[in-house]
Amino acid sequence: MDSAFAPQMEGTLMVRQELLDLLPKVDAMIFDIDGVLVDASESYRLAVCEAVRFFVQNELDWIVDVPPLTPEEVDAFKKAGGFNNDWDLTQAAALFLLFKSLKHGVKRVSVLKRLRPSLEEFLAEVSAEGGGLSNAEKFAIDRLELRQRRDLARLWKRRLLVQLAQEFYAGRKWCPRLFGFEPQYVDIEFGFLERERTLIELSLLPKDMKLGILTGRAKRETMLALERIGLTHIIPEEFWVTDDDPIRKPDPKALTILMEKLGANRAIYVGDTIDDLKMVNDYKERTNLNDPTIWVCMTLTGPNGEKNRSFFLEQGADIVATDINALLGYLKYVREGKGQRKKTKEGEGEIFPKLKGR
After folding, report:
1. Where exactly are the structural domains of the chain?
2. Residues 6 or more apart from 46 whose CB is under 8 A from it?
3. 231: which residues sit within 8 A by CB, 6+ positions away?
4. Are 303 and 36 a contacting pair, CB within 8 Å?
5. In three state form, how does the secondary structure of 41-59 look?
6. According to CATH, what is the number of the domain 2-40+198-351?
7. Which of 61, 90, 346, 349 has the maximum number of C-beta atoms within 10 A of its C-beta?
8. For the chain, what is the radius of gyration of the CA atoms?
């Protein structure tokens, strides 16, 4: 069930068979930002890694002879679930290292990383409990002695970790606007956000469809990202749900709220992490027959990229796309009635002919 086309670059789309005749009736699209509209692999991930490195080296005075946290390990946190918020992820990564240090009495990072539990073991336990920072904290506290817990409470400076990650992300230029403070620890001008790259081709956006944003970014971060993409005049603030809202991602109620704001009946939510997929699946389980319908498209431009294709399908994704443009180009194609469908050998989907670039 592979369909391919090329608005500017060649992409691949996998669609569940039962949706093929329904997708032309979609009247709204809701977008995540990171990994969907912008490539944040060189911004948030690096900011998290640098914040953890700075913390253990300068605050804890550890011997940092290897990176305490790598971008690949950040991706592992994302796949575990519950770490959609990068500031929570920063705290959890430092917590894990502190837990191991207190448990083994080791402050050399290269030695610490070889000791058990491994990050994979830690994340498996946390994921089994539902994922997220609170379960990571519970894992550590349950396995430390009373004296070690007191040391953890003293050493694990959560606000400092968040501020470090924000300073690395925004730099001197953007910290005041995004977070309301001047950097105190990190002396860089622009921050890693300047490395973010736009993924969406705006000309592919359907002009007759309602559009919304549901993101783990705070409102100020959302505003800046959409400004840099060129979307603020296309998707106004009234159609955003951000991390500053009372009900926010990954609560499926956030989808209900946004669908009401949009006045939509059938929508596609486009995300890139397991939390996005779980949120839509939870929404489906809680809705009634007359409630708006939401399908989920998972892009492969987020953490782990192409490696997530089978994983997303196994976890119940309705659509898996190489990138956002593969989905938008496909929707434009079928809505204009150009598709000539051909069954795949398995009969589980349909192949769409390649389109030439504009």
Report:
1. 2-40+198-351, 44-192
2. 71, 168, 192, 195
3. 37, 200, 202
4. no
5. CCCHHHHHHHHHHHHHHHH
6. 3.40.50.1000
7. 90
8. 21
Per residue of the chain (358 residues), give pLDDT as tens.
343 323 333 468 999 998 988 988 999 999 999 999 999 999 999 999 999 999 999 999 999 999 999 999 999 999 999 998 999 999 999 999 999 999 999 999 999 999 999 999 999 999 999 999 999 999 999 999 999 999 999 999 999 999 999 999 999 999 999 999 999 999 999 999 999 999 999 999 998 899 999 999 999 999 999 999 999 999 999 999 999 999 999 999 999 999 999 999 999 999 999 999 999 999 999 999 899 999 999 999 987 888 889 999 999 999 999 999 999 999 988 877 655 444 443 334 443 433 322 2
Q: What share of the chain is helix, strand, coil (3-state, %, to 5)?
A: 50, 15, 40
Ramachandran assignment for 347, one of left (phi > 0), alpha (psi -120 to 50 degrees), beta (any other): left
Say which residues have a Cβ less than 8 Å from residue 167's Cβ, sequence separation at least 6.
51, 175, 183, 184, 185, 186, 188, 191
Sole residue written with tokens 């924000």: 166
What is the token pair recorded at 296?
């989920």
Rounded to 5°, the CA angle 132-31-10 comes to 110
d(CA 293, CA 278): 15
Instruction: Report the 10 Å Cβ neighbour count for 8.
Output: 12
Residue type, 173: K
Cβ–Cβ < 8 Å for 205, 24 = no
pTM of this structure:
0.88
